[in-house]
Specification:
This protein has about 120 residues and is α+β, with helices and mostly antiparallel strands. It is built from one helix and six strands, in the order H-E-E-E-E-E-E.
Length: about 120
């Protein structure tokens, strides 16, 4: 009975161990650019870049983009998974555009993009 409990505990912990193999520092955001344009009465934002996996294993990363005012205060923040529920292979990258999640505000002056979390699907 004791062996069954130990085996069960190992099987439950195995998925958690898979999540710990890669960390936020194993991912990088490259070529992040923000643009706002208007089309008729609406404004469209683009927040494009590439998410690169530098980990030795396939994994996915959630990114967070913050829009800040002239004083550096965060006025809007959104998170997204650029690869969805698909892992990104080692050395591979995916392109993203999270602009559709933001509503243009003229007080937005600077933008920051970072890795919020990492997991293996």
């Amino acid at each position: 009975m004791k062996n069954i409990l130990i085996a069960s505990a190992l099987l439950l912990a195995a998925p958690m161990a898979a999540h710990a193999a890669c960390s936020a520092t194993d991912f990088a955001i490259q070529d992040f650019k923000v643009a706002a344009g208007s089309s008729g009465m609406s404004s469209k934002m683009t927040m494009r870049g590439q998410l690169v996996n530098h980990c030795a294993e396939a994994a996915a990363a959630q990114i967070e983009i913050q829009a800040k005012d002239a004083s550096g205060n965060v006025i809007a923040s959104k998170k997204g998974w650029p690869a969805g529920t698909t892992n990104i292979g080692p050395g591979q990258s995916v392109e993203f555009d999270l602009g559709r999640q933001f509503h243009y505000d003229p007080s937005m002056q600077t933008y920051a993009a970072g890795i919020a979390s990492v997991r293996a699907w």
